[in-house]
Structure formats: structure tokens, C-alpha cells
Design a protein that fits this description.
globular; ATP-binding; 6-stranded mixed β-sheet; Rossmann fold; 4-stranded antiparallel β-sheet; alpha/beta
Length: 247
């Protein structure tokens, strides 16, 4: 089943397009890593995918429906880049954050014992069940990211969309975080990951999409590494080497 479909999509905040003529599909079970230099349109593309913007040209669909009109939002688990900033003043526990994922499913607004068990199972899946009673404000950046992934799992999301989730997260936690995404994908979760660490994308994602206002590459990591797409998309802004990162 196709979760995301963009066909000849262009969009701009002014007369100049931010992205041009993008065609892209993400099918069930895929793990897609989206990369590109700063200002390449990655976040704009995510907003189009999520239906937060309507394309100027072309079409964007989620689960076969126009993205802007898609209403079953529980099917999409979105973890924003600034999620750690947004939670700094939230006086609620980790368990309460994860339980929010059940609200769209709660009959007559009532949380049931089954809802609470599904939330606990989600916490176990991401490895932070022991933090359930801790305030979300007291968690590290990596732990907060796991809490928001658990919320998506509790909501029975079919698609996990992450916008540079490892920004500000320590190296050890980053390794564990990518291990979690690998495990979720192995269990069938569809993942779209925007990530600045190209090396991590090449190591973990099953497919690489390289963007700089237009598509420069869409295919397997091995083929990307052997292509000239990196140089063409990033120009002189790329630093090569082990664990390729953006300069």
C-alpha cells in the first residue's frame, strides 16, 4: 500500500519555488532517509506531505487521500525537530504524553484499561517503561524523542515521520535511537526520516532520497554512495569521510 504519493509537486512561499517538480512515493514497510543541505526544502516537503501546505502545482496524497484533507491523523506519527524545546514547560509525565496517542481512539473521550495497556506496551517497545512516572521535562533529548515515538506507537500509527530527530542528542543515545528505528522497521513500521547525518542514513535506511529544491537521487544507499548525487546536491558544503556529515 502506498502511504505517501507526491506527483510533480512544486511549492513556494513567494514567487520563487522552494521545491520544484517533486515526484515521490513511500510504500508500506519502507525506511526512507531524506537528506539535503540546509535550505534545500526538506522541512517544506514534510509540510506538504503532512498536508500543512497545499502544493502550488501537482498533487500530494496520504493513504490515497489529498494530504490537506486527510483526517485520520492518528495513522501518522510525526516527531518534529524542535520537540525537545516544545516539551520543556509541560508539567506532565512520560506516561501521560504516551497516553495522548490513545485519545483519537477513546470512545466518548474515555480512556480504558486497554488504552493504558497499549500505552505501557509502547513504552516497553521504545525501552523507557522505567521512566513512565518521570516528568517529560526531566528527560534527556534522546529520551524525549523515544517518548514521542511511543506516543505514535500507542496511537497505532502506520507511518512514522521524523524531522532531524537526533539534533542535540548525545552520540551514545543517537546510536541507540537508530537501533530503535531499525527494530521498528523490522516489525513493519513505515519510516520517513529527515536526517543531517548522511552516514547514518546510508547505514540504516533502505532507501535514500536526496533533495536540493529538486530531486537529485532516489534509490538504494549503495547506489547513492556510488553516484555523484552528493556532490551535485551539496556542492562544496559537504565533508567526506567516515560517518559523512554536513560541514
Amino acid at each position: 500500500m502506498t502511504h505517501i504519493a507526491l506527483e510533480n509537486v512544486s511549492f513556494g512561499y513567494t514567487a520563487s519555488p522552494v521545491i520544484r517538480d517533486i515526484s515521490l512515493t513511500v510504500d508500506s514497510g519502507e525506511y526512507v532517509g531524506l537528506i539535503g543541505p540546509n535550505g534545500s526544502g526538506k522541512s517544506t516537503l514534510l509540510r506538504l506531505i503532512l498536508g500543512l501546505h497545499d502544493p502550488d502545482d501537482g498533487t500530494a496524497t496520504l493513504f490515497g487521500q489529498p494530504a490537506g484533507a486527510f483526517v485520520d491523523r492518528a495513522r501518522v506519527g510525526y516527531v518534529a525537530q524542535d520537540v525537545t524545546e516544545n516539551t520543556k514547560r509541560m508539567p506532565i509525565t512520560v506516561a501521560e504524553v504516551v497516553l495522548m496517542g490513545r485519545f483519537p481512539h477513546a470512545g466518548f473521550g474515555r480512556i480504558t484499561t486497554e488504552d493504558r495497556e497499549l500505552a505501557r506496551e509502547a513504552l516497553r517497545t521504545v525501552g523507557i517503561e522505567h521512566l513512565a512516572d518521570r516528568r517529560i521535562t526531566k528527560l534527556s533529548g534522546g529520551q524525549r524523542q523515544r517518548a514521542y515515538i511511543a506516543r505514535a506507537l500507542a496511537g497505532e500509527a502506520d507511518l512514522l515521520v521524523l524531522d532531524e530527530p537526533t539534533v542535540g542528542v548525545d552520540a551514545e543515545s543517537v546510536d541507540a535511537f537508530f537501533g530503535l528505528l531499525d527494530a521498528l522497521n523490522d516489525d513493519g513500521m513505515t519510516i520517513l526520516l529527515v536526517e543531517h547525518d548522511i552516514g547514518a542514513v546510508l547505514e540504516h535506511a533502505g532507501r535514500v532520497v536526496c533533495l536540493n529544491r529538486e530531486l537529485y537521487f532516489d534509490g538504494p544507499p549503495v547506489e547513492f554512495a556510488e553516484s555523484d548525487a552528493l556532490d551535485r546536491a551539496y556542492g562544496t558544503n559537504v565533508r567526506r569521510g567516515e560517518g559523512v556529515t554536513i560541514a
